[in-house]
Amino acid sequence: MDTDNRMVALELESAWNICLKELEDARREYVDRQKVALAESECKAGINLEELPQNFKSVWLSLNTTDKNRKRMIRYLVEDEFAEVHVRFRGERLRV
Questions:
Q1: How many domains does the chain have?
Q2: Residue 70 included in any domain
Q3: Is 1's pLDDT higher than 60?
Q4: DSSP assigned state of 95
Q5: Higher confidence at residue 77 or residue 23?
Q6: Bigger pLDDT: 43 vs 6
Q7: What percentage of the chain has pLDDT greater than the value 90?
Q8: At what angle do helices 3-44 and 67-77 cross, to 10 degrees?
Q9: Has residue 82 been placed in a domain?
Q10: Domain range for 10
Q11: Distance between CA 96 and CA 94 in Å, rounded?
């Protein structure tokens, strides 16, 4: 490999790695802000986040819970995402 090309490749790789780190930092900050926003909104509603998994159904079905807060609840509780999802609806075959 030509020395000039190698220098360009190293520079591009360095810039790419910086962008990847900035993206990961932004994602982490987004998740943190979502958790704070959920905690604030749930505190206003009088719900303890530590008890959310046990009270999930009642909080979810509450008339005071907005769709926005439902999305936040899911984001707060979901730890990992998987690439493959299987959904089975009542009376239907398995869909992939």
A1: 1
A2: yes
A3: no
A4: B
A5: 23
A6: 6
A7: 15
A8: 120
A9: no
A10: 3-77
A11: 7
- Identify whether 88 is part of a domain: no
Contact 76, 38 (CB under 8 A): yes
How many CB atoms are closer than 10 A to CB 72?
A: 19
- The answer to whether residue 13 sits within a structural domain is yes
Q: Give the whole-angstrom CA distance, residue 95 versus residue 17.
A: 38
Provide the 3-class DSSP secondary structure of residue 87.
strand
Question: 3-state DSSP call for residue 96?
Answer: coil
- Tokens 């079905």 belong to 61
Instruction: Give Cα separations from 83 to 38, 74, 86 (angstroms).
Output: 26, 17, 10
Two tokens at 10?
Answer: 């190293």
Q: What is the pLDDT of residue 44?
A: 61
21-to-25, 27, 34, 86, 95 alpha-carbon distances in Å: 6, 10, 20, 32, 36
pLDDT tens sequence across 38-61 = 777 666 655 666 666 777 788 788
